[in-house]
Amino acid sequence: MRGFVLPYLGLEGHEILMQAEHSTDKFDDFFQGFARAAPF
Amino acid sequence: MSNVVAFPAAHAAPAVSAQNVTTTLLSGFAEQRRPLDDVFWLKENAELLGILAATDQTLEAGALGVFDAFYDQIEERLRFFPQYYRFLLSICLDLEDLGMPGDKGTRLCAAIAKAGMPEAELSDLQRAEARRLLARRDAAKPPSAGVLGARLRAFMARPLTFALPNKKAAYELTHIVFYLSEYGRVDPQLCDKALVSLEFAGLLAYLDQNIDLLAEICVSLRFAGRMPSPIWEAAVTAHHAAITSSQDGSGADAYHAYLVTGWAQYVRSGPAFATPLPTGHVAFTAPAPVPSTLRLLSECLLGLGLARSADWGADARLCPAVSGP
Fold first, then answer.
1. Calpha distance B123→B64 (Å, rounded)
2. B203 and A20 in contact by Cβ < 8 A?
3. How far apart are CA B84 and CA B267, in angstroms?
4. Residue B271, preceding bond cis, omega within 30 degrees?
5. Which of B159, B253, B265, B323 could bridge across to B196 with cysteines, CB 3.0–4.6 Å?
6. Number of Cβ within a 10 Å radius of residue B14
7. Best mutation target, B195, B295, B297, to test chain A (most A CBs within 10 A)
8. Which conformational region is residue B280 in: left (phi greater than 0), alpha (psi within -120 to 50 degrees), or beta?
9. pLDDT recorded at residue B316
C-alpha cells in the first residue's frame, strides 16, 4: 500500500509520512483502521 | 523556549521582563483581549488559568488583581448566567488555587451540586468536567467513579474510533485524560487500549500537522506515564517557538495553540511561558500551515477505490491513476 501512496504526497508530505511511520510502532495497526473504514 | 516576538514599529510597546510574562498574560487575557461580557472571555480565561494552575506557576504579588472585580461579583454572574457555571466555577477554583484570597469556591460547589446543575448536561464529557470541578471542593465524586467513569473508559478503549479523522472525538479523548488525571496530579490508570487510542489520535494529528491537538495528546500520554514520540514532542516544541506575539489582531488567533504547546513543553521539561510578551493587548500568530498529508493520504485512498488495501506494508505496483505530482 505504501507504494501506491508515496507518489501522491509530494516531497513535504512524503517527509511527514516518513516521520509519522517512525514516530510509533503502531503505524501498521493504525493504517488498518484508517484504510478499512473509508475515512473521508 | 524561544518564542519569536514581533513588535510592529507603529504599535511598539516596551517588552516586559521574562519573569513578568505570566503577569502580562493574566493582564492581557483579563483586560485586553475581550470584554468581560463576551463568553469567549470566559473560555479564554478559564483555559489560561487552568493551565497556569496545572503548571504550578509562581505568580508575582498582585498578579491576580486584574480578577478582583470578577471574583467579587462571581455569585451574581452565576445567578444571571447559570448556563456558564462550568466556566465560572473553573475560573473561581483556579484563582483560589493560584493564590487568590477567599473560599467562595467551596460555597459555589456546594450550591451548584445542591441545585443539580450537572444533571442538565447532555454529554458524558460535560458531566465529567462538572464532576471534576465539584470534586475539587469535595462536593461530588470524581469523574472516574461509578457508571460515568465506566462509560468514559469504554469510549477511550476503542482505538478504531481514533484511527479516523474526528477532531471532536480526539479532543474529547484528551480532555477525559485531563479530568481522570486531575490535570496530571494522579495516575489516570488508562488501559492498554486507551493508550493505543492516544497513539492513533497522535498519528492523525501529526499527519494533519494539527500541533494544537498533538500537544494535548503528548500531555495526555505523559499524564498516563508514557513517553510520547520524540518526533511529536519536537514538532510541538518547534511550533511553540514559532508562534509570534504582537499587539495587532483581534478575534480568533493562535492563543490556544500557544497555551497548549507551552503546557506540553512544561510537562515535558519545564519551565514554560518565560519568553517576553508585549504588554497590553496580546495576539498570537501561528506559522503558516503546511499542506495536510492526512488529506493527501485520504484522497489517494479514495482514488484507489477497490484497489485500496488495509495492509500498509504490502508491496503494490504503482497505480497510474494515483501517480500525482
1. 33
2. yes
3. 29
4. yes
5. B159
6. 8
7. B297
8. left
9. 55
**Predicted model pTM:** 0.90
Position B70, amino acid: F
Distance CA B218, CA B263 (A): 10
| H or E element at residue B186 | none
pLDDT digits (tens, 9 = 90+) for A1-40: 788 888 888 889 999 999 999 999 999 999 999 987 654 4
* B111-128 per-position pLDDT tens digit: 999 999 999 999 999 999
The closest CB to that of A24, out of B203, B308, B309, belongs to B203
B15 phi and psi angles, rounded to 5 deg: -75, 150
Q: Which position has the grid cell 512524503?
A: A14
Q: How many CB atoms lie within 10 A of CB B276?
A: 18
- Residues of A whose CB is below 8 A from B199: 24, 26, 30
Residue in chain B lying closest to A19 (CA): B231
Model confidence pLDDT, tens digit, residues B121-154 = 999 999 999 999 999 999 999 999 999 999 999 9
* Nearest-CA distance B323 → chain A (Å): 5
| Three-class DSSP category at B19 | helix
Q: Give the ipTM of the model, two decimals please.
A: 0.91
Number of Cβ within 10 Å of residue A8's Cβ equals 22
- Give me the residue label for grid cell 492526512: B294
B261: cell is 504547546
